[in-house]
Design goal:
2 copies of one chain form a homodimer.
Chain A: H1 8-17, H2 25-37, H3 40-56, E1 58-59, E2 66-67, H4 73-76, E3 81-88, H5 91-100, E4 105-109, H6 127-135, E5 141-144, H7 150-163, E6 169-172, H8 188-196, H9 201-210
Parallel strand pairs in A: 3-4, 3-5, 5-6
Antiparallel strand pairs in A: 1-2
Chain lengths: ~210, ~210
């Protein structure tokens, strides 16, 4: 629907918001009108936060996670095991794994996943610098924590081939029925694989005694 | 869900976006990560547009619509009939009526609707300045284009009572707009037609006595 804006400034602000993913022009208008009703200093803070964020946020030169400093606080943390590297697709996945509070190693953010359909090849990802870490003996284990999709599998295999001649263990996330899920809702592929890759009960029981 | 942010700047930006209506923390994160991936100058433009909009947008001193100038371009337009005033709740409704391209008069933005539940009384709206226009003989017809809700009806009656002793015709939108609908969701054809077929306020009142 076309809107006749009574203000060029309003129209521009709506157009800007409408460039955001999942935000149509109607939602954009609602957001902008909301901002117009707020206090001057609140809106100033909003605008300035966006400007500062883009200008000042860096990429950690160790793990490629976003950071306010040259090396991120995870890589800097003396209590974290630098020998165990969890490879993830994006900074959002770092957050997801951190939320589990189960992982005390460090990360390596690929910046994407190999996807010929989207024109993303290995050279577009940070695989080179991951191989470097393996070559330098900087790590002993690489955990591939990528999406369990075809693209994720492709990327897993590609990375595995690049790393297999170095003295590192390459592992992937356990695949199986999600905890708390009813069996009847698990898809057949997942269920099938989790039967094939069944683990010893004592092994599972041992973990859960130490875990939550 | 709690997120462990690797960057204070990122967290602040997410918090800002999450203050917007209908935007949760998860969506806010998606929007911020999207902005992070854009070109520096595009994000700068985004931030600066918000800052400029809030600083520079004015309220038209004639009709209370938002405007880039003291008097908005509708009120300034020599081809528009200043004697016919369409009273709407919000600037969004001005846009809706403008979109129909059926109305060549001017507007009066109330800035809300009488709603005791929300603590909005007549004094919170721009009814005083509307009455002034009727008193000064500035207009000959006032079209009440409010939502066809209970609050809209209450406001209609209130304004009608304030204006009825002045030499103005008070009309309301033809009931082409489905009763109970907000104006902004009305389709353009229905809305356009209901402006063309507007009825005298007394006429509508007579009908509603017989039951709607």
């Amino acid at each position: 629907m076309h809107h006749t804006y009574s203000s060029k400034l309003l129209e521009e602000a709506v157009e800007e918001f409408a460039t955001l993913p999942g935000i149509g022009r109607k939602t954009a208008l609602r957001l902008v009108l909301h901002l117009l009703k707020q206090e001057d200093r609140d809106v100033e803070h909003f605008g300035n936060t966006i400007l500062r964020m883009k200008k000042e946020i860096m990429t950690c030169k160790e793990c490629h996670n976003i950071s306010d400093t040259e090396v991120c606080h995870i890589c800097k943390d003396p209590y974290r095991d630098k020998k165990t590297i969890c490879v993830v697709e994006s900074i959002r996945d770092v957050m997801s794994v951190e939320n589990t509070q189960q992982f005390m190693g460090v990360y390596h953010v690929l910046g994407g996943i190999i996807s010929p359909m989207d024109g993303v090849g290995p050279a577009d990802l940070t695989i080179e610098s991951l191989e470097e870490k393996a070559k330098n003996g900087q790590c002993t284990e690489v955990i591939l924590a990528l999406s369990t999709t075809m693209e994720g599998d492709t990327t897993n295999f590609y990375i595995y081939r690049r790393l297999k001649d170095y003295p590192v263990t390459v592992s992937t996330l356990a695949r199986g029925v999600a905890i708390g899920d009813d069996l009847e809702y698990a898809d057949e592929v997942t269920l099938g694989r989790s039967i094939l890759n069944r683990t010893s009960f004592e092994e599972t029981f041992k973990h859960s005694k130490h875990g939550t």
